[in-house]
Amino acid sequence: MPELPQLDHVAYLKEALALARQGQAAGSAPVGALLVSAQGEVLARGHNRVGQAQTADHVGGASVAHAEMDVFFQVGKLEDPETLTLYSSLEPCLMCGGASALLGVGRVVWATADPWGGSGRLLRWEDHPAMQQTQVVPTPDPALEREGALLFAPEAKRAFPEEGWALWQARYPEETQGL
Ligand SMILES: [Zn+2]
């Protein structure tokens, strides 16, 4: 495992949540992500763009236009990926977690768990050599976890099948109440 720098997870996750709100304001799902260097420099900021047109600058339109993919497409080829940290407002899905592992990103940190589609349990899958290279830091801040759950809960109810919403209700009973 490479040495990863001490970064202020809370500060970057706050920015991921702000990006999630930007995505929501643009008509997409409220998920935001950013990629941060070992020195703490933000290399790219992204948000979900599923509801937006694709442009030369941004992935969009297709249902794979998730916040993390937006970040990866913006950055292009990663330099020293093992030194980088990906922050997301929501636990990355299988595609985005898989892309992070494939690219060799050193660490993935998220504000809020996704008990339906999250890939954290697979990123920690120690039998898979690609996954071993990526460390995961799930929900390091309870207040931000709750904030992200409140933000994403309506989308979870809309987008996920019944079983997925039941998992959200079980994990976040207060944040899903009344929806
Ligand atoms: Zn995703």
TrEMBL record:
Transmembrane segments: none annotated. It comes from the Bacteria. Pfam families: dCMP_cyt_deam_1. Residues 7-122 form the CMP/dCMP-type deaminase domain. InterPro entries: CMP_dCMP_dom (IPR002125), Cytidine_deaminase-like (IPR016193). PROSITE patterns: CYT_DCMP_DEAMINASES_2. This is Nucleoside deaminase.
